[in-house]
């Protein structure tokens, strides 16, 4: 009965979302409104709705047993995620009603960036520590990671900055902001968060019509920085010099590929994630029938939700979910390559890169290819603020895509 209720609720959200998308006004001119209603970019909308629905269902399935065992409401996390989903869809609707010129203005990008940087400083002053990492800020009972805000803010800021060609001297300001942001994230500590910032910046800079020689230099610098950071952590950790902020990062790197070296300690989660993937087979054990979520995989609805998904629904469904995510990402890259306005193209590339990095890191860490990172799977893992921020970024892309798919008159309206 409970699973039936979860399915009905998910179906209700999908129907409401589709209804909202069909009944929005996109511009002041009635002719443009009618055209846009027929030109919704379904290659963006359908994968988003599909992954969101499956994600909400898996949040309930992965968390219900733990909540019941703790004497809590088994629907609590499900309802929180559902509320954030509804809020996200309403904000996406609002984005459709806002003129796109507003989202392309420098004030908009700088305000977002200021919020991101202030939140990163705030987490060091008044942050919440979980599992030895101080990455969260709590406001009115709602916890979020400032690094998530910074990722989205940097996309809009860098896209605005590189809306026109810049000289090498002019790169000092954006590079300083990227360096400062990554440094603040690095010392939370969140090594993968800092790497994500570097990669997003690299993609936007490399696609901003700079000479390929500069692109290669930036890529080599980023690769060298990543290797040097990992090597330094391994060296210092092996000499027991990381008892402070990077001690847990060293433990995760040490157990990459073989978590069974410490199956009841630091490798406990990864070991049971392997068991979950193995138990699922091609067709899964059935929705709600996971074994590892019953105390063997703590807080399974967050970083390891994909392991539970494969265990319950099978490898085939797991691959379908990844296919939907990569279809969404590929569509963003295609739109970026076709876009004639530089700033909009960079936003497409930035959002697509953010989704690609998060998906790749989460799946790679679950498979033991890289250390467990704490990066959620987009639209699948539990996390209301993460879902909200990604939805807002995608909503902006959907707005631009809708304009691109109408006529030349609509694209002219957003030129600054």
Distance between the termini: 54 Å
Specify the helix fraction band.
Answer: 55-70%
Q: How much strand? A: under 5%
Given the structure, what is the number of helices? 16
Average the pLDDT over all residues and give the rounded result.
80
Number of domains: 1
Compute the number of strand runs.
Answer: 3
Low-confidence stretches: 1-32
Strand count, sense and barrel status of the largest sheet are:
3 strands, antiparallel
What is the element string, with H for helices and E for strands? HHHHHHEEEHHHHHHHHHH
Radius of gyration, in Å, reads 22 Å
> What shape does the CA trace take?
globular
As laid out across the biggest beta sheet, the strand order is: 1-2-3
Coarse structural class:
mainly alpha
């Amino acid at each position: 009965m409970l699973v039936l209720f979860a399915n009905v609720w998910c179906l209700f959200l999908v129907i409401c979302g589709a209804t909202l998308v069909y009944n929005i006004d996109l511009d002041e001119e009635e002719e443009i409104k009618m055209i846009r209603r027929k030109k919704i970019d379904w290659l963006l909308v359908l994968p988003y709705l599909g992954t969101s629905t499956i994600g909400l269902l898996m949040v309930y399935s992965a968390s219900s047993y733990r909540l019941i065992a703790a004497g809590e409401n088994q629907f609590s996390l499900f309802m929180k995620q559902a509320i954030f989903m509804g809020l996200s869809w309403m904000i996406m609707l609002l984005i459709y009603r806002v003129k796109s010129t507003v989202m392309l203005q420098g004030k908009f990008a700088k305000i977002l960036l200021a919020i991101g940087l202030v939140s990163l400083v705030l987490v060091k002053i008044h942050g919440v520590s979980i599992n030895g990492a101080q990455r969260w800020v709590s406001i009115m009972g709602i916890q979020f990671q400032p690094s998530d805000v910074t990722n989205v803010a940097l996309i809009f800021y860098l896209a605005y900055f590189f809306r026109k060609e810049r000289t090498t001297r002019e790169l000092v300001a954006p590079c300083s902001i990227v360096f400062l942001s990554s440094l603040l994230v690095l010392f939370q500590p969140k090594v993968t968060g800092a790497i994500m910032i570097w990669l997003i910046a690299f993609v936007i800079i490399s696609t901003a019509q700079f000479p390929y020689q500069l692109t290669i230099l930036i890529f080599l610098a980023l690769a060298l920085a990543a290797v040097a950071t990992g090597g330094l952590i391994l060296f210092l950790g092996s000499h027991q010099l990381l008892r402070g902020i990077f001690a847990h990062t060293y433990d995760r790197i040490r157990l990459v590929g073989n978590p069974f070296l410490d199956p009841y300690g630091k490798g406990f989660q990864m070991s049971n994630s392997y068991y979950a993937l193995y138990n699922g087979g091609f067709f899964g054990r059935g929705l709600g029938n996971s074994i590892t979520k019953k105390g063997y995989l703590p807080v399974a609805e967050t970083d390891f939700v994909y392991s539970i998904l494969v265990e319950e629904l099978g490898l085939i469904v797991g691959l379908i979910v990844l296919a939907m995510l990569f279809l969404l990402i590929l569509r963003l890259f295609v739109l970026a390559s076709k876009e004639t306005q530089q700033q909009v193209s960079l936003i497409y590339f930035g959002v697509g890169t953010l989704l690609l990095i998060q998906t790749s890191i989460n799946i790679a860490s679950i498979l033991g290819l890289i250390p467990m990172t704490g990066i959620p799977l987009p639209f699948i893992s539990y996390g209301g603020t993460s879902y909200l921020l990604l939805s807002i970024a995608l909503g902006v892309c959907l707005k631009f895509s809708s304009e691109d798919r109408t006529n030349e008159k609509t694209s002219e309206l957003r030129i600054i």
